[in-house]
Amino acid sequence: MTKEERMALARRLRGEGYNCSQCVAMAFADETGVDAATLARLSEGFGSGIGGRREVCGAVTGMTMVLSAVNAGMARPELYRRVSGAVDGFVEVEGSDVCATLKRPGAKPCIDLIADTVGRLHRILEADGKLR
Questions:
Q1: Cα 42 from chain centroid?
Q2: Which is nearest to 40 in space by CA: 66, 64, 21?
Q3: What's the pLDDT tens digit per position in 101-132?
Q4: Contacts of 25 (CB under 8 A, 6+ apart)
Q5: pTM value?
Q6: Phi, psi of 48 (to 5 degrees)
Q7: Which residues of 16-42 are buried (b: 16+ CB within 10 A; e: fewer)?
Q8: Do residues 87 and 97 make contact, with C-beta atoms less than 8 angstroms apart?
């Protein structure tokens, strides 16, 4: 699947009512080895900043789930480095990884944060040779 196809899928999923975490995770079902329905169930509680608490952005938690799945078996310090680097990249572009901050008036809509995150994650996985 191309980056553009993944981004379009994530946008469609958002339109169907899935939360940010679900949209990002489900857009990579083909790469994680976990079916989309299971990913939807596993990531549902991460919406609106983990259980609606407006803390860590759902797009970030979805990205973390995908990175964890595609790097299964990787030594924990290396996985943490990769996840931390991806989160740093998100913060560099978006300004924060906190849902409440990202949802302030006049901010980028969640659907755009989702699509941007899917695109960024696709590029990361492609560079790491992790895409099938």
A1: 13
A2: 21
A3: 999 999 999 999 999 999 999 999 999 999 98
A4: 32, 39, 40, 42, 43, 62, 65, 66
A5: 0.97
A6: 50, 45
A7: eebbbbbbbbbbbbebbebebeebbeb
A8: yes
